[in-house]
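Q: My hope is that you can spare some time for a protein that puzzles me. Underneath my words sits a plain record pairing an amino acid chain with its backbone structure tokens. Those tokens are not coordinates but codes from a learned vocabulary of shapes. Thank you; the sequence and its tokens follow:
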Amino acid sequence: MDGPVLTPYLIASVAYLTLVVALARATLSPPQARLTLLAAAVHLPAAAFAPLLEPSYWAPLRTGDVRLGLEDVLITAAVASWAWFLVALRFDGRLGAPVPVRDAFRRSLLPGGAVIAGYLALWSAGADPMTALIATCFVGAVVGCARRPELVPLAAWGALALAVVWTALVALTFALAPAFVHEWNLAGAWGRRLLGVPLGEIVWAGVFGAFWPTFLGHVFRVPLHAGAHAGDSMGEVTGP
């Protein structure tokens, strides 16, 4: 196939995923380190919709010059892992073990399908693809918090933490590969840069950081215990 062998998109995707997996294994309890990986697996179907963001939001170069590539799969896994890792890092001592994987994937079908359907409905109606994505994640976060109010602290922390960390990661990537930023549509609605990073990346990270912990909290029925001490996974369960 024609096209570059190693693109900034591929290198960044590999680096982001490798870093978060290493950090999860080094810092989290075994159940939460495992859930960080499972978070990536649950999010993988979203990779199929990555091309819908083109060219209005960005037009990335992929290895082999394909429409949907390995980069999309890796970055989809990476963002989901980071979103859960940052929450688990803060709340590990209060998070219980998730339900079995088979039950979790079964439970993901209805809410996951609803999120995808909502996004596709907005996109089909002519909404800007990135705006549609941000709006869908925002609604998902609100619904998730309404269903399990005890997860609101996870959503709030996730929004702040992922926005900060993702902005730093992308800014560092641009520092190492300055031309990469021009693969975004900098003249578009979400292309204006803040701290050198397209605004869409920052806003999306904040909204996704709120949505993903509530989604996983439902799918995996992760209990949030009352105890606040690190490493203490026992205590009274505050939610279903």
In short: Residues 102 and 220 are 10 Å apart (CA to CA). The two ends are 51 Å apart (CA to CA).
